[in-house]
């Protein structure tokens, strides 16, 4: 079944919503990387915001100073978390393991 074509107004609304989500995720990553918010704060925001819940866990780790793509991927692998896992999709054990790891940094 094909998707219906969106009107110009519907596309504009969707574009604005997507832009707002990207801005929210970028601000969150910046604040997390600078230490202004904690991992628990990120998890709390993910419960209230779909944009934050859809942020990939690896991207959040890469926002930390000194953590690049390789280190972030290795960390997730060591913790048994898929690189494709999003913040909102983390299980209780995964959240706990990641929080414990981040507390050691």
Task: Write out key terms for the chains shown.
105 residues, mainly alpha, Helicase, Ruva Protein, domain 3, 6 helices, 68% helix
Tell how many strands the DSSP assignment holds.
Answer: 0
Residue share in helices? 55-70%
Runs with pLDDT <50, length 5+? Answer: none
Fold-level CATH name: Helicase, Ruva Protein, domain 3
Supply the number of structural domains: 1
CATH level-two architecture: Orthogonal Bundle
Describe this structure in words.
The protein has 105 residues and is mainly α. The protein has a single domain (10-104), classed as Helicase, Ruva Protein, domain 3. It has six helices and no strands. The N and C termini lie far apart (49 Å).
Q: Could you give a short description of this structure?
A:
The chain is mostly helical and about 100 residues long. It has helices at about 10-35, 40-50, 50-55, 55-60, 70-80, 90-105. The longest helix has 27 residues, at about 10-35.
Helix-strand layout with pairing:
Blueprint: H1 8-34, H2 39-48, H3 50-53, H4 57-62, H5 69-79, H6 92-104
């Amino acid at each position: 079944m094909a998707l219906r074509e969106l009107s110009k107004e519907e596309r504009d609304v969707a574009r604005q919503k997507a832009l707002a989500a990207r801005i929210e995720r970028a601000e969150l990553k910046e604040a997390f990387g600078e230490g202004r918010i904690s991992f628990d704060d990120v998890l709390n925001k993910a419960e209230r915001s779909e944009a934050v819940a859809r942020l990939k866990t690896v991207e959040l780790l890469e926002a930390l100073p000194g953590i690049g793509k390789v280190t972030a991927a290795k960390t997730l692998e060591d913790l048994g978390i898929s690189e494709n896992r999003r913040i909102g999709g983390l299980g209780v054990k995964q959240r706990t393991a990641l929080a414990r790891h981040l507390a050691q940094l």
